[in-house]
Structure formats: structure tokens, C-alpha cells
Amino acid sequence: MAEVSCRPLAAEDWPDVKTIYEEGIAAGDATFERAAPSSWADWDAKHLPRCRLVALGNLGNDGRVIGWAALAPVSTRRVYAGVAEVSVYVAASARSQGVGTRLLTTLVQTSETNGLWTLQAGIFPENTASVRLHERCGFRIVGRRERLGQMSGRWRDVLLLERRSAAV
Predict the structure, then answer these.
(1) What is the DSSP code (8-state) at residue 71?
(2) Residue 117: helix, strand or coil by DSSP?
(3) What are 59-81's pLDDT values in tens digits?
(4) For residue 132, what are the domain limits?
(5) How many domains, the chain?
(6) pTM, two decimal places
(7) Which of 4, 116, 95, 118 is nearest to 53 (CA)?
(8) 114 contact partners, CB below 8 Å, separation of at least 6
């Protein structure tokens, strides 16, 4: 595993976060989104302020941002205040080096510190690396949503994974 540290994601990280997000979008198996938000304000408005991280690494890039993870609320209803959706993105140059594991492990800890009891993720079945990452971090597959949406004229299934906190 590479040397990786995590810290809270800040507005000044947005250019790197956007670039890494765009790499994930371009790969075709990370999200239904076709473009990253155009501004920090758009991205910021959709994510929980206390549960967002960047990974910094010494992978020949002088400690720059090599990944990010964040939580988004699943609903505005109070009953779902402790449930959030996970996003984890790793720069193409830093994949398969433990960055995702470090990010997701730290995000789980941060979520529990902030009173969240359920984390969920929707992952394309073809994104086997992401499915394995989530399973290693305590998520389980609870279902498959068939033909949930189309991408480039092709129907896509989505696996629904969740992790229940033992601490909250």
C-alpha cells in the first residue's frame, strides 16, 4: 500500500477533485453523470460538509490530491438524517495502491463520529474494483436495481450496497 494521508476536503481542492471526478466519468463505469459539476458551489451544495475527504499521497506527485470521498444526504426528511450515499474516486494514476481503501475507511470513521448509522452506495456491477472495495470496508450487497437508467443508449443495472454502523 502506498503512503496515503487523508484530510478534510476544502474549496481549494475543487480543481483536483473535479479532474479526478472527470476521469471516473470518462471511464464509463463510475456514475450515470456525464459531466462534473461546473463549480465548487454546485458540488458543495450536494455533499455533507462534515464528511468529505481528500487523499494525499507520495506516489511521485509531491503530496497532491490523488483521490476524494464524500457523503451526500439521501433525503431531506429528518428520519433519514443518519443515512448518506457514498462517493469515492481515485485518480487513474493512483488506482490499485490502497488509496480507495484508505479513503473509504476514513470516511466510515468520520461518518460514525458525525452520527450517521447507514451508508449506501449504488455501483454498476461492471465496476468490480469498487464493489470489492466497498465489501472490504464492511458494505454488503442488498439488491440489484435492474435497468435503472440508460447510458449511451444502453440500459444499466446498479447494485445497492449498504453498511450499517455498529457504533451509532
Answers:
(1) E
(2) coil
(3) 555 678 999 999 999 999 999 99
(4) 4-164
(5) 1
(6) 0.94
(7) 4
(8) 48, 50, 51
